[in-house]
Amino acid sequence: MTIKLLAIGKTDSKPLQQLISEYENRLKHYVRFKLETIADIKNAKNLSEVQQKDKEGELILKKLGPTDILVLLDENGKHFSSIHFSKYLQKKMNSGIKQLVFVIGGPYGFSDAIYNKAHGKISLSKMTFSHQMVRLFVVEQVYRAFTILKNEPYHHG
């Protein structure tokens, strides 16, 4: 299985990017992982929230294959402990899916088209984080999940 993380906009912070890269490299030992960035919408300030979500939604849909399982990182999604998230990933791998795609939306969330296409929603916290930080948290939690599944000490380190 491949895990893909789609995110709107690039990471401006070099230290954050270095940490994200570190966890991406660690993940290579466990699973095929890809982080793909979708460019920010041009002239977004001239668009309504709905128009911006719709344009971002179109770009997200273009990045999906027909058999991809889409999971949204959404404030109204399901909450997991790290252990339960590792079990969730194990179930996805056991189900034989080829690609699991997590998506971090833009500043206003997702379009209706994306919500309709999604196979689920996960919330990292009731708090709001910058989209750049969420990338790090997702990559780190995917890595943590695999170390839990392999009974490696990272989770309790």
TrEMBL record:
Coiled-coil intervals, chain numbering: none
Catalyses which reaction(s): pseudouridine(1915) in 23S rRNA + S-adenosyl-L-methionine = N(3)-methylpseudouridine(1915) in 23S rRNA + S-adenosyl-L-homocysteine + H(+)
Keywords: Cytoplasm, Methyltransferase, rRNA processing, S-adenosyl-L-methionine, Transferase
Any GO molecular function: rRNA (pseudouridine-N3-)-methyltransferase activity
Function: Specifically methylates the pseudouridine at position 1915 (m3Psi1915) in 23S rRNA.
UniProt: S-adenosyl-L-methionine binding residues: 73, 105, 124-129
Signal sequence segment: none
A single Gene Ontology CC term: cytoplasm
Name under which the protein is recorded: Ribosomal RNA large subunit methyltransferase H
EC class of the enzyme, as a word: transferase
Annotated localization: Cytoplasm
Keyword Transferase among record annotations: yes
Subunit structure: Homodimer.
Highest classification ranks of the organism: Bacteria, Pseudomonadati, Bacteroidota, Flavobacteriia, Flavobacteriales
Family named by the database record: Belongs to the RNA methyltransferase RlmH family.
EC number: 2.1.1.177
